[in-house]
Amino acid sequence: MENDPVANIFWAVEPLLLQRILLVMVHHFPRTLEALILHTLSPTAAEVLTRKFDEMDQLTTKEQQAEFYQIFYSIFDDPYAAMNSILNGKELFAFQAFRNVLDQYLGVSTNKPK
Description:
elongated; Putative tRNA wybutosine-synthesizing protein 5; 6 helices; mainly alpha
């Protein structure tokens, strides 16, 4: 994560502080937030962000959760594109973790030519 400044920031802040940061971006820098999610989010940052979303959900009511996600996704021209960007990042993170386990713990290299 040391080479991923976005993931580092997400990781370093408490869930409710991250929620406030994202809401400030929604209101003051919506296009920047859109670009961050759609174009800058690495697989690691997507994984950390969704973990923070899970932590936020544990600390808030269902109504607060619904309000946050409605506001957060409202800035995207296509909210489903944002959801897909985050989901695709998570899937790439999971795949990379799987490859790392195969390589580092089982000695199976997935980079061999066929």
